[in-house]
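Hi, here's the filled form for the chain we discussed.

Project: internal
Contact: R.S.
Residues: 409
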Amino acid sequence: MVNPAIDYDTSNAINIIAIALLVTSISIIIIPIQNSFAQNISAPAVSTWGTGHLNVFVVAPDHTLRYNPYFNGRFAGWQQSLGHPPGVNLTSDPAAVSWDPNRIDVFVRGSDDNIWWISYDRNTNTWNNWQSIGKPNGDGILPTSLKRLGFENGVGPPNGAWEWNSAQYAAPDRLTAVTSPIKEGSHALKATVKHGDNASGGARAEVVLNNVANYFHEGDNAWYHWYTMFPNGSQPTPPWQVWTQWHQGDDRLTGGPAIEFNVHTGTKLDLRVMPWFWDNQSCFTVAAGQCGYQWVEPIRTGVWYEMLFHVKWSQNSNVGSVELWVNGNKVVPCSGCSTHMATLDTRDPTASVYLKQGLYLKDVISQPQYVLHDGMRVAKCPPDHQYYHPNTEKCYTSPPAVFAFSSKR
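And the returned structure, exactly as it came back:
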């Protein structure tokens, strides 16, 4: 048996081509799939328990396992669904095997990260119930610390800041927990700033992780995973807006935070390291690899951005570094960019930073501005397992590949 492939014909119907040794010759079998079923199916898995028989499996767009058996010289059709485990969607390509003429076993990853198993017994002509065989942990270990900073527990302004330490806002309604749109749990944060707002010396509405025990210091290996949306109908207004930042531990310092995520000119999202340093050099070009900008891309409204950000915190430009994955794809270090840089402000005697999220903007903006955030996780990994994987919330010896954490919550 060789690996099957997917072929798209001119009518936009998908045909799975399975090439198998049938009797003594190689046959090409076309398995048509209705157009209504043709979008976003998984790659197929194929097994056989003997000559002249094939079993083809795919995960359908509704996250169920579909089955099409071949016997007596033809396929029976895709009408047979094997469903999915109760309360669990199927999220990977299936794998199938027949180790006996009367047996089929199929394995698929579930939305709970467990591997799920379903088997067929030809003697009784029945499919057994779905069973979990557990979650592979590999070489993963628990982070040295993991904080879940959401908006599910506690109260918000004016009496609290949910799961964060504190909040900065001009009025309590500038920071609200909303039930739609959300990315995980039952609430997300809506941060709003209006013309004339002033809080802690600026036009801002931010939740803050700023008790000293939660500062990030020289040598910390920290990961941040969260979701951000600029809702449909919002019009981010020039010149700049900061939507997530790591502020120096010494609040007397001016010129911008150590690291910031921005909206620039109302059209671009970016990540910038040491903005105060580059501004002092009169370097303002908003382009990846220039003036401290590590990532720049056009803004899209109405979609959740999934952010995974890795920082080695250091005042030493040969030690500090940043990595960034956006919607599962690694975008930093950018092509041709330096892999190391100072990530802690060299002017700061505390050699530390703290996290702020919400919205902070140039106070000349006249229209109300708002943004949504959800599901911040902050993890610290030990040096020998320095890579955090959001899928498992564990630390590993190798970096995460393209991930789809958002599809599993």
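Let me know if anything looks off before we file it.
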